[in-house]
Amino acid sequence: MAQRSILIIESARGPLQAVAQNLQQTGCQVYSAQDSRDGLQKAMEFVPDVVVLSRELNDDDALDLCRSIMRNVGGETAPAILIAPTGADLSGIDDPSHDSRLAESLALDLLAQCVKTLTFRARQTHDSQSVLECHGVRLDPRFAVAEMDGVRLELTPTEFRLLQALLSRPGHVLTRNELERATGPHGKANPSESASESASRTRRIDVHIKSIRSKLNHKSVLIETVRSVGYRFREPAWNINSTR
To answer: Which positions make up the signal peptide (predicted)?
Structure first.
């Protein structure tokens, strides 16, 4: 799994630096910015999993910065954004029996834990868009690029999604219904459709698979037909030369 990354934006060297140190100790990559302009630039450059904004930025600036980040770093790579309290609001504990420094330390620990949770969730989402590669076939879902042995494969969007579904689980059999769902909302069954319409949809999967195989050329054998069930992409340990 790739290293988790966090961008912390606060107007001066303040309490969030303690959060940064905490996160660095757990293996996170932490970037810092001291104003909205620098924060946006670094968000676009490094595309962090989580952005933490300080309350020391006034409310309008913080909200405008949130909108700018989401607008300029959108899609699957958009980070989670947390506006964190700082200064007098940091403790969050009104009990006068608590030492103020202890209260602040506890609040910082809770904030750090919240950021860790957000980075974990963000990384799970990003991992679903990870590059897939097996037997020299490589798919990069982020850019919708498919290659075989370094040569670009010209796949239609539907073919790309089908190959992505198969390549994401090599060795596992996917039914035609599962492959239909992988092609997007238009591939979902309509409860009112007739048996002939359902059969027509599943036959379309066969047609798409045949087209993908033709584009894989001599590696078409990587997509195996499992009679009466569906298809699977050959597991990594399978020897492609065994069929020649």
So the answer is: none
* CATH value of 5-127 in 3.30.420.40, 3.40.50.720, 3.40.50.2300, 1.10.10.10: 3.40.50.2300
Q: Which residues pair with 146 in a beta bridge?
A: 139
The answer to whether residues 119 and 136 touch, using CB atoms and an 8 Å cutoff, is no
Q: Which two tokens stand for residue 43?
A: 């968000």
pTM summary value: 0.47
Rounded distance, CA 23 to CA 211, Å? 48
Determine how many CB atoms are found less than 10 A away from the CB of residue 222.
24
Residue 143 CA to residue 43 CA, distance in Å, equals 19
In this structure, what are the phi and psi dihedrals at residue 226, rounded to the nearest 5 degrees?
A: -105, 105
